[in-house]
C-alpha cells in the first residue's frame, strides 16, 4: 500500500491533536516521523505511530510536557524533556545547540528524561541548514552481545554526524555499531529467511543465522563496535544522569513505565574553521570522487553515507511511502478508531 | 630486548637536542612516544624514532616550528603546526581546547600543516586530568577498500574518546574503522602466517588471508566503517583545509615532502552536565559491571576500551618495554651514530 507524505502528516497531526499533544511537540514529531519514512528509514518512521499513541494513552509519554532548558556555560546546556515524544526533544535540543554555537562557536546539549527519539538524522540535519556540523548520540535497550561474554550488555547505540554540502542535501552518517538492526531479525522471521552470517547470536551467545533463535546482535569489528557503544552510553546516559547499560528500559513490554532515556546533541560552526562555501564545495567534490571510483562489479555502487536516503526521499516525495499491508491496516484501524476516518 | 622507559626517553631527548628540536616539541614528542610504548601501542611508540629522525633530517619535519594559534570564537580555534612533530601538535591543540573549555564549556581545535600525530590517546588523555571528555580525530593515507569498489579511498582514520574515571586511568576508546591495522600485514609477512579472515584484500580488491598479497584493509561493518572513515576525514581534513581522501600524502616513501595532515581535537567539560565526582563514580561502576559479566569461555575476558593498555602500562613501568631485535638494533645504531652512545 502507498501513503502520501502530506496525507500521513495531517492524519498524525489530527491524532496528536485528539490526544491533546502540545502543538510544538506534535508538529515536530509528525514531521520527524514522516521525514524519516520519506528517507527510507521505515523502522523509525510512521509505523511507530501506533506505538507512540499507545505510549501516550498509557501514561509513558507526556503529551503536555514542561520542557525546561538550563544553559550551563556559553556552549553547553541541559534539556529536561519531561518524558515527551523524543523526536520533539531532539529538535528542541538541536535548536538550543544552534543558538549556543551561533554565540560561542559550538553548542552541546545533554537531554534527560527523554524517550525513544526516532532517527537521529532528523534533528542533526537541521544543524546543516545553519552551516554547521551536527552531532547526535542516543543509547538504547541492551541488545549487543559483548565480545567476551555470552550475553548482551550495551544497546545498538547510534551516532549521527551531518555536514552541509554544496549541491545536495547534507552528508549524513547515521549508524549503529551492530552488524544489523534488531528489527531485521523480525523481518527474517516473517520472510522465513536466514540472517546474514556473523550478524546475530542466540540466547547462549552462539552465532546463529536462524532468525527464530537470534536474540542478540553482534558488534561491527568485534571489540571496536562494543567500544563505540560504550562511548555513546557515556555521552547519552552518564552525562544526562540517566540509567545506562542493562538498566536501560525496554521500548516494548510494560508501556506504562517512563523510559528515562538520555541523548547528546551538538553543533559545531563550520565558519570558525573554514569559509562555509569552500567547505561545502570541497565536501561536494570529495563525495563525487567517491561516487566515481571504479566499481567492484556491475551491480555495485560507490556511495557516500546518506546516498540511499537521498535517492529514497526523491522517489517517495513523488510516489508516496510504501507501507506493508500489516502496518497499513494497523494505521488505518488506529485512525478510524481515534479520529473517525481512515487513510482513504 | 628490553628498554627501560626513562632510559628511552632520555636518549630520545638527547637525539632531539642534537637535531636542535625546539625544547617543548622535543619534550612532548619524547613523552608521547614513550607513553605510547608503555601502553603497548608499539606501532606508534619508540620504534618510530628512526622514522621521525630521518624526517627531520630530510626536511619533512620542522624542528624549529613557528606554531601559531588563532582563537576563532569562545569555544574554537585553529592551530598551524608549521610541519612539526605531530605528537607535539596534538598536545598543544588539546591544551588550547582545555583552556577554551574552561572558559566556555567546550573547546574544539582544528590543526593544520601537521604530520603523523602518533597515538591520539596521548593528547586526549590529558583532557581527563582536567575533568573533561577528550576527543581526537586524524586522517591517514588511503588504505581502506571502499565497499563498492575494488580499491582503497579513505585511510584508517581513527577516532579517540576519553573520559575520567574514579579509581583508575581514564576510559579510552582509541580505534580505527578497519578490521586490522596496516602494520599487522607486515607482522604476518615476517611470521609467515595467514591474516584473519575478512580483514584484508589484494591489489584487485579480492579478499585474501595471504599477507604477501594483502595491500588493502577491510572496513569494520562494511559501509559503516567506510562512513566512519569519511566522517573523520571531514573533521580532520576538510575543517583544516588539508588534502583529503586519496590526496593524503604517504607516511613512508619520499620523506623530503611535507605531509600536510590535519587533526581535530575537542574537550567537553563534564561539570557543565553532571557533578564530576558522580560522573566518575558512575563510569567506574559501569566499567566494573562490564568486567563482571559472565564469560563466554575460560579464556575470555570482559574488558572495557583501554583495559589492555592499562594492564600493559603497569607491567612495562615495572619491567620495561620489550622491543624486537630488529627495532632494538635500529634504535641502537641510530643512538650511536647521532649521540655517540648506545642503549647500554
Topology diagram in text:
The structure is a homodimer of 344-residue chains.
Chain A: E1 2-3, H1 5-18, H2 23-38, H3 49-57, E2 68-73, E3 76-80, H4 86-104, E4 106-114, H5 121-129, E5 132-138, E6 159-163, E7 171-175, H6 183-191, E8 200-201, E9 216-217, H7 223-238, E10 261-269, H8 276-291, H9 307-319, E11 321-322, H10 325-339
Parallel strand pairs in A: 3-4
Antiparallel strand pairs in A: 1-11, 2-3, 4-10, 5-6, 5-10, 6-7, 8-9
Q: How many β-strand stretches of chain A?
A: 11
The geometry of chain A reads as globular
CATH class group of the domain at 67-178 and 219-269 in chain A = Alpha Beta
Order of helices and strands of chain A: EHHHEEHEHEEEHEEHEHHEH
Under CATH, the homologous superfamily of the domain at 67-178 and 219-269 in chain A reads: Malate/L-lactate/L-sulpholactate dehydrogenase, NADPH binding domain
How is the CATH topology of the domain at 67-178 and 219-269 in chain A named?
Answer: Ribosomal Protein S8, Chain: A, domain 1
Amino acid at each position: 500500500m502507498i501513503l502520501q507524505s502530506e496525507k500521513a502528516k495531517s492524519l498524525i497531526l489530527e491524532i496528536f491533536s485528539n490526544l491533546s499533544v502540545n502543538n510544538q511537540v506534535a508538529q515536530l514529531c509528525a514531521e520527524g516521523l514522516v521525514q524519516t519514512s520519506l528517507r527510507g528509514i521505515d523502522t523509525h518512521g510512521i509505523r511507530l505511530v501506533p506505538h507512540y499513541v499507545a505510549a501516550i494513552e498509557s501514561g509513558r509519554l507526556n503529551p503536555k510536557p514542561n520542557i525546561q532548558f538550563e544553559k550551563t556555560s556559553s556552549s553547553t546546556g541541559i534539556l529536561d524533556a519531561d518524558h515527551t515524544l523524543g523526536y520533539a526533544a531532539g529538535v528542541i535540543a538541536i535548536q538550543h545547540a544552534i543558538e549556543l554555537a551561533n554565540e560561542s562557536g559550538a553548542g552541546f546539549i545533554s537531554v534527560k528524561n527523554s524517550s525513544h527519539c526516532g532517527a537521529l538524522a532528523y534533528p542533526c540535519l537541521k544543524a546543516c541548514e545553519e552551516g554547521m556540523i551536527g552531532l547526535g548520540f542516543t543509547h538504547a535497550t541492551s541488545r549487543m552481545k559483548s565480545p567476551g561474554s555470552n550475553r548482551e550488555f550495551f544497546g545498538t547505540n547510534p551516532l549521527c554526524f551531518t555536514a552541509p554540502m554544496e549541491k545536495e542535501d547534507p552528508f549524513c552518517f547515521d549508524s549503529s555499531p551492530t552488524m544489523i538492526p534488531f528489527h531485521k531479525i523480525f523481518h527474517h522471521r516473517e520472510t522465513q529467511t536466514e540472517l546474514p552470517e556473523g550478524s546475530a547470536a542466540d540466547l547462549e551467545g552462539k552465532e546463529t543465522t536462524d532468525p527464530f533463535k537470534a536474540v542478540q546482535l553482534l558488534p561491527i569489528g568485534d571489540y571496536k563496535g562494543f567500544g563505540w557503544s560504550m562511548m555513546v552510553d557515556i555521552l547519552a546516559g552518564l552525562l544526562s544522569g540517566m540509567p545506562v547499560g542493562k538498566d536501560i528500559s525496554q521500548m516494548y513490554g510494560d508501556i506504562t513505565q517512563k523510559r528515562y532515556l538520555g541523548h547528546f546533541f551538538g553543533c559545531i560552526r563550520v565558519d570558525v574553521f573554514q569559509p562555509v562555501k569552500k567547505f561545502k564545495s570541497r565536501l561536494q567534490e570529495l563525495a563525487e570522487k567517491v561516487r566515481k571510483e571504479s566499481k567492484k562489479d556491475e551491480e555495485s555502487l560507490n556511495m557516500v553515507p546518506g546516498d540511499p536516503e537521498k535517492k529514497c526521499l526523491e522517489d517517495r516525495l513523488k510516489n508516496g511511502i510504501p507501507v506493508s499491508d500489516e502496518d497499513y491496516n494497523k494505521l488505518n484501524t488506529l485512525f478510524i478508531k481515534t479520529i473517525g476516518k481512515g487513510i482513504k
